[in-house]
Each structure stands twice: as C-alpha cells, then as structure tokens.
Write a structure and sequence with these properties.
Oligomer: single chain
Shape: flat
Strand content: 15-25%
Radius of gyration: 14 Å
Strand order of the largest sheet: 1-2-3
Number of helices: 1
Largest sheet: 3 strands, antiparallel
Helix content: 25-40%
C-alpha cells in the first residue's frame, strides 16, 4: 500500500503524519530521517490494527500543490 504523508518543519526537527492513519506520527532531525521513521511507524500501526481485529484503512488522501502569487 502507498500512503500519503505530510512532512513539516517543527523547530529543529521534522514532523510527519499520515492523514489516512490518525495518530500515526513520527519525527526526525532531517526530512529523510523523519520519512524513514514514518515508514516504520506505519508498519507498526498496521500491525497493531490487525492484532486488534480492526480494518486497515485504504489509502485515500491525495497530495497536490497550488501556486499563488507572492
């Protein structure tokens, strides 16, 4: 499965969350490290859902950009 992630600068670190998996978050000192951490967090999150007998949400979020004049 392929989930959309949102990476944000958070002070000295980067924060990442998954819109389709509420509560699935990670941080890291760089954007790349945060991306690695969120991959592990997603796997852990999905394993937990399965163990609890819950349905794994299908990826549904889309990512896009809008250009505006500054």
């Amino acid at each position: 499965m392929r989930y959309a992630i949102v990476i944000e600068k958070a002070g000295e670190n980067f924060s990442v969350h998954v819109p389709d998996l509420p509560g699935c978050v990670a941080t890291g000192p760089t954007a790349e490290e945060a991306k690695t951490q969120i991959r592990e967090a997603i796997e852990f999150h999905l394993e937990g859902l399965l163990e609890d007998g819950l349905v794994i949400p299908q990826p549904a979020s889309r990512v896009g950009y809008v250009e505006v004049a500054a």
